[in-house]
Amino acid sequence: MIFTGDDAVTDHADADLMDQAARPSAHGFQADVARLLELMAHSVYSERDIFLRELVSNAADACEKLRYEALENEKLAADAGAPLVAIALDKTARTLSVIDNGVGMSRDELVASLGTIASSGTRAFLDNLEAKGGADEKRSAFIGRFGIGFYSAFMVADKIEVATRRAGAAEAFLWTSDGKGAYQIAPLDPSLAPSLGTKVTLHLKAEAEEFLEAARIEAVLREHSGAIAIPIDLAEAPGAAPRRLTDGSALWTKPKSDITPQQYADFYQQLANQFDEPALTVHWRAEGRTDYTVLAFVPSARPLDLFDPARKGKSKLYVRRVFVSRDIDLLPGWLRFVRVVVDSADLPLNVSREMVQASPIIASIRKAIASRVLQELAKLAASEPEKFRSVWDNFGAVLKEGLHEEPQRRDAIFDIARFSSAASGDGQRSLKDYVANLRPNQTAIYYIVGDDKKRLAASPQIEGFRARGVDVLLLDDPVDAFWVTSAIGFDGKPFKSATQGRADIEAIPLVDAGEPPTNDATPQIAALATTMKAALAEHVEDVRISTRLCESAVCLVAPDHGLDRQLTRLLSEHGRAEMLGKPVLEINPRHDLIAALAKKAASADQTGVEDGFWLLLDMARIADGEPPLDAGAFAKRLTALLVKTGG
Ligand code: ADP
Ligand code: MG
């Protein structure tokens, strides 16, 4: 924690504990929080309504937490009333309060929860915001699409008070801050404190007075918090009778036919803390050996922390409508973009998180969710290809992790997988489509792996494939290099790297029957290959006469056995250089440059011949996106060559 040196009230290290607890204390916010508050206070006010969604969802969470704690604690159970969130407006005092009878916060919890950024999501938000930079409107539009929690209230308030009593505790505390870098915590006279739970009071800024109007509050709540599983009341003025706004019945318990798309969308946004519409909603109830209900959503926008390994779960587990945990893994890693609520009738309520996680019931629910989501994605792919395309563009890279991690799901994932290919332009192909359109004598599914689709499409290694009308899948996601080597094949056709080994494509007819690429190179070119191999032996395993080149003079491929070039590169990035095999350099016997070099190599005058070998090797490396072996030597050789041709 960073202290700001607020000297109005200070902590004294030598004070005894009792004394310290009774005295108000001042604290600085953690550095990240200070940064976030600054952003909040200065954001343009187009999406500031979201503060209410954040406070209401915290209040509802607190009620759910208390319900859970009360399961094991009879005393708490006796004190707890029916869970309720109430909103109270006071035009005279210019305040808006959100009150809950939930679990409340102890002094330590106040410090930890309202002075610190703990969630990785919030940090990801800050990082992204930083990256966006630019105009304020752009930034604030972005704020509304992201759950940023309690601190968003500083968009509308210049002072916030949180009066709270931890369930079961005698003492209560008041947290106060003007959102300018520091906050204070003081003990609160128990007679003034809520008997249970938390009251968050916002002192609204002058330009946020609209939030004192009941109609405005109602509209915002309907929009953002309609599906909250706790009832919400509104009291329009001090002393006025509260009015019930939502009944808090859990959406997933209702029959599908009674739920509107809007209600599903509201619920999804609440659950995911995102503002997009779900691209796919899957809601079903399993009855039989185990009873449970699942409501799962595939987002239509990428969550910011999709690739963050520490991503906080956005799934919620309930047991008979009692919220149990957000931390149970209900999805395999390769479905981590799915947002899901599970309500189980069979799990015991009062066991530890670890035991729940290890229970066979959870294991079978997990399996069922994965199967069902894949099934529904396949349906979407068939019925709404455009919509599915956007799902695949957003999450295909994550889904493909499943090919590697869960081999038994491979067929189901292959079924929905879509690939860019050398022939597909901006479109994508399924494997089924690829296999249905094999060329005569084509026996494999050819692919090329790399990180840049454009460069892959222009690779010299696939020229001969193109000339034969053989399409090559362009695999440009990091995960591709892994599954493609472990997957056996699709529909009986093996996957084969277009950049490895001999191309073996001579038997496939050319599209334009022109001069066929051939292996029976003239003796001069065969001799050239031998000389080149001797000269470059340190860097290449072999120099070979190519059947896969058409327009280019040279290219590098992986040896027949061993690893694909891209995988080799990935491993060398991870310092596993000992696994590196040397590549094979292929030369194009029909290329003028090769023919000329062969002629020269066979003649009496050898000047520049060896330089030519090295230049060709470097050219092949550059076409693969690698630097020349020795940039200085490369530049010298090229200069010498250019001087010669120029002069
Ligand atoms: P998040 O809800 O994502 O954790 P917030 O900034 O909204 O982030 O809230 C931070 C934390 O503060 C919560 O996780 C919770 O522990 C605590 N908190 C906020 N509001 C309440 C409340 N009304 N009752 C109890 N705890 C609360
Ligand atoms: Mg929150």
Give a quick rundown of the structure.
The chain is α+β, with helices and mostly antiparallel strands. The chain has 3 domains: 36-246, Histidine kinase-like ATPase, C-terminal domain (Heat Shock Protein 90), CATH 3.30.565.10; 251-391, Ribosomal Protein S5, domain 2; 419-646, Up-down Bundle (Four Helix Bundle (Hemerythrin (Met), subunit A)), CATH 1.20.120. It is built from 23 helices and 22 strands.
What are the main properties of this structure?
alpha+beta, Heat Shock Protein 90, Ribosomal Protein S5, domain 2, Four Helix Bundle (Hemerythrin (Met), subunit A), 3 domains, 9-stranded mixed beta sheet, 5-stranded mixed beta sheet, disordered N terminus, binds adenosine-5'-diphosphate, binds magnesium ion
